[in-house]
Amino acid sequence: MTTTTMTSLLPEAALAFAAVAGLLLGSWLPRRRQWVVRALALAAVAAGLAATAADAAGPAHTAASGSYAVDIGLHAARAAVLVATGLVLLAGSDGLAGDRRETEAYVLLLLAAAGSLVLAGANGLLVLAMGYLLASIPLYAMVAFAKDAPGTEAGLKYFLMGALFSVVLLGGTTVLLAAGGATGYPLLAVGLVEAPRAAAGAGAIAVLAALLFKAGAVPAHFWVPDATEGAPAPVAAFITTVPKIGALVAAYRIGAGLPLEAAGNWSLLVAAAAAATMVLGNLAAFGQDGVRRLLAYSTIGQVGFLLMAVAAYGRAQEALPGLLYYLMAYTVTNIGAFAAVCALPEARRLAQWRGLFGRRPWLALSLVVCLLGLVGTPPTAVFVGKLTVFTAAFDAGMVWLVVLAAVMTVASLFYYLRWILPLFRPAGGDDEADEVAGAALGAAGRWSTAVAVCAAALTLVLGVAAGPVLDWLASGALAG
Hints:
Layout: H1 3-8, H2 10-28, H3 35-56, E1 61-63, E2 68-70, H4 72-91, H5 93-96, H6 102-121, H7 125-143, H8 149-180, H9 185-193, H10 197-215, H11 223-230, H12 233-239, H13 242-257, H14 266-285, H15 291-311, H16 319-343, H17 356-359, H18 361-375, H19 381-395, H20 399-423, H21 431-440, H22 446-464, H23 466-475
């Protein structure tokens, strides 16, 4: 690798180095000092953010013989993934500290984060497949980390579906290689112009299906509720956030870089997936009594909104900056909601959150900000993200999709209120409910509570400062 390539890949290298070094350290450190590995992981995240800030000041370019794009898409994905990883590491400190496999948890999270970055920067099908596997395999183990019955079942389901879609991805890559004669997007774009439409379309659909699985979108969403409920809360926060960043940026990059409209209406296909995803996610959330399953279906619905920007590629100037901003906004907001779940691991049902404001007002207010943020309430960041994505879809001529998304946004308010309202209900009048809530709202984790408060503050700050962030995102372009 050249010096330029190594410099361009510093954030990814920092995560990989910390994973290897952490694994070696954890093999020798006593259990009470496993926090050293967590500190190393947080240092790698900080170093990655610093390298991202330095690299973002330069022009868009490619690295590794053109197979890796270092551009605004990767810079935004790096910022979101690294911040998300850091917040999850901190939120998980309460539950993972002292665990006999604490080191392995941090190492697997770092590897999965690195895989998501590779997904976001892939400028060729082989690099895409490598990033896909790296972002998947560590998470199969993390979902079953607790080794209990729900986690083991969820991990097995996640693994089996992941293996299936990995084969689908490799099959699609093979078909596109045969049709276009290359794996790198620039050369593949030239080759697909003269390729048979059926072969190009079949290969592209297979690759898209794998990315939809990674993002948790319809029709490959079945693993999301079970994995979110069965995994440890910090892992649930990670799998519902970080892999989506890499998958959605990769999907946008494929649509923008390859002439797929000639093989079929690619934009309409993605729009249909967006519509099905937002409808299923939001409607299914209404019947959930468990907070993790509610957030699981909520994240499916959010992916539907995000896919609108992917469907609007090339036909609206706001599509790329809207997607990237929405991903950043969703990252901090979703992790903030999950941090509250991490703080109170015994409160698994909505009724068990009754009276939280009277007991822990800061945690309750932070949760309210994050839940209303997921709805898209001003002045939170998700509001600006939704507004930008809706505008992009409207400019792209998908008025029907914008109307459907607006209806689903209003509908989502009702199931979030099912969680918000009990937070402010005082104890009294129902001894059984008070007893259940009191047992669940015991001692709250300090680190996870702090992460919830910080994430709520970040979503407000990012919403207020949306202008400069969107200007930065709009000033760049995809390399390739």
